[in-house]
Design goal:
The complex is a heterodimer of chains A (178) and B (77).
Chain A: H1 2-26, H2 31-35, H3 39-69, E1 75-79, E2 88-92, E3 99-104, E4 110-114, E5 125-127, E6 132-135, E7 140-143, E8 149-151, E9 160-166, E10 169-176
Antiparallel strand pairs in A: 1-10, 2-3, 3-4, 5-6, 6-7, 7-8, 9-10
Chain B: H1 3-38, H2 42-76
Helix pairs in contact in B: 1-2
Classes of the chains: A alpha+beta (178), B mainly alpha (77).
């Protein structure tokens, strides 16, 4: 009796297979040919990929120019006569959350930079004795003339604030990231 | 398979490899340019974009050349 049951089950499995086969005949799906990619198609896809990557590269190259060309506010930051040689003044630009530093160099020229150190974002201060912008957190030094790092861990220069002088008033008009 | 057809097959395989290498180089250039962008080094990104465009032009010319070759073989048949 148990053998008969097993035979019946086997028969049923065969029936199922036959049904499946019939279904496959009615709706044939040829997976092999569907997933087959010819060399010609492959080359076409690669060429399209090449175009896409070249486009992405162009976008990445154009991004700094797009960002810089967006209009920055013109903000009055100080009176020229209030800062003597070797002195510095703190201000915020372009928003209240962007601390900056204005320094009058030994030659009388005014320069301004973002006060955020390019290493780990501590606030840089003016060191008059060494004529440098100094980051007290990790002893990073930047030149006053160009904002370039010359000692310590920072590797990138400080973003420079573009200045404009009208009479005795000094205005910040933009940020220059080099 | 004629000699010309065999040439075509070899050419197509070689082209596939060359274009593949070009795409890998472009991916490397894209990585380098994104890195340069994050470091605010605009000139590097510009050079990488130019190099990537040159690689794309080379890839495009190779593909066009082989497709033309293929067309000629089909016309000869």
């Amino acid at each position: 009796m148990p053998e008969d049951k097993e035979n019946q089950q086997d028969n049923c499995l065969e029936c199922k297979k036959k049904k499946a086969a019939r279904w496959r005949e009615d709706f044939p799906v040829n997976w092999e040919s569907d997933n087959y990619v010819t060399r010609r198609e492959m080359v076409k896809y690669l060429a399209l990929g090449s175009l896409t990557i070249a486009g992405a590269n162009a976008v990445v190259a154009a991004l700094p120019h797009i960002i810089q060309s967006s209009e920055m506010p013109k903000t009055r930051i100080a009176l020229a006569s209030s800062i003597s040689v070797g002195e510095s003044k703190l201000f915020s630009y372009p928003t209240e959350e962007d601390p900056c530093i204005l320094v009058r160099q030994n030659n009388g020229d005014l320069v301004a930079y973002s006060q955020v150190c390019t290493h780990l974002s501590c606030a840089v201060v003016h060191n008059e004795q060494e004529n440098a912008l100094f980051c007290p957190c990790h002893h990073g030094y930047f030149t006053v003339a160009e904002g370039r790092p010359f000692a310590g861990p920072p590797t990138r220069p400080l973003p420079r604030i573009k200045l404009e002088q009208q009479g005795n008033e000094i205005f910040a008009v933009g940020v220059e990231i080099s | 398979m004629s000699t010309r057809q065999r040439q075509g097959t070899t050419l197509f395989t070689a082209l596939l490899v060359l274009v593949g290498i070009g795409v890998v180089v472009q991916l490397w250039l894209l990585t380098a340019s994104v890195d340069a962008f994050m470091r605010h080094q605009g000139s590097t990104a510009l050079h990488a974009a130019l190099a990537s465009a040159v690689v794309f032009v080379i890839n495009g010319l190779l593909v066009l050349y082989v497709f033309n070759f293929d067309r000629k073989i089909n016309q000869d048949r």
